[in-house]
Design brief:
By secondary structure, the chain is α/β, with parallel strands linked by helices. The chain has helices at 24-32, 34-37, 70-78, 91-104, 116-122, 152-161, 175-187, 199-202, 212-219, and strands at residues 59-64, 82-87, 109-112, 128-134, 162-172, 191-193, 225-231. It is globular and about 45 Å long. InterPro entries: SAM-dependent_MTases_sf, tRNA_(Gua-N-7)_MeTrfase_Trmb, tRNA_methyltr_TrmB_bact.
Amino acid sequence: MSDERPSRATEAFFGRRRGKPLRPRQSAAMDEIRPAYAVDLSRPAPSDLRELFSAPVDDVRLEIGFGGGEHLLHEHVRFPQSGFIGVEPFVTGMAKFVMALAETAPGNVRIHDDDATQLLDWLPEDSIAGIDLFYPDPWPKRRHWKRRFISPANLDRFARVLRPGGRFRFASDIDHYVNWTLLACRTHEAFDWQAASADDWRTPYEAWPGTRYEAKALREGRTPAYLTFTRR
């Protein structure tokens, strides 16, 4: 399998992976339920990603760094005809999400609990209808900017797996990271920014459920921005 993957090096774009020790039920869910939903990167990706799902789906979407999973849980119910792959390396967030999956046993969700670049390099070209990256770690110190997920290399990865017309959505409450992302995407030849006025990036996405991190940002007086780009 390693010979079939791009040789591009990966780098961890997340910080710590563990917080407080998991509760017994969370540990049990990670051991017993998570494997049934995990994407197996040791095997070649199917040429048609819809084969990953036990439920019939029309397309596949990807959410990177889903945190507590509020948005992903909302979307997989709202769009049962779509398959969703969620990525979250932080163990506590993944454990909470897996416990929620155990209650509904959806056939249109798969997960990856490690570096998203590994998954992106595994995916076939033009296989993804949409990529969501909401409230990623902003790495505010200048010496850490190289660890921001939005970079020319990762936008190349997005461009490879997104089908033409596919959407990349980015939300953040950190002005510098919003500007960073806007500049990077407008510089990249594969992406068009979908905005005609300021309201287009100040207004949350349609049926947006919010996240716990966003609620904290609003309480602390930070204003989120919601960017949308399409793959040319």
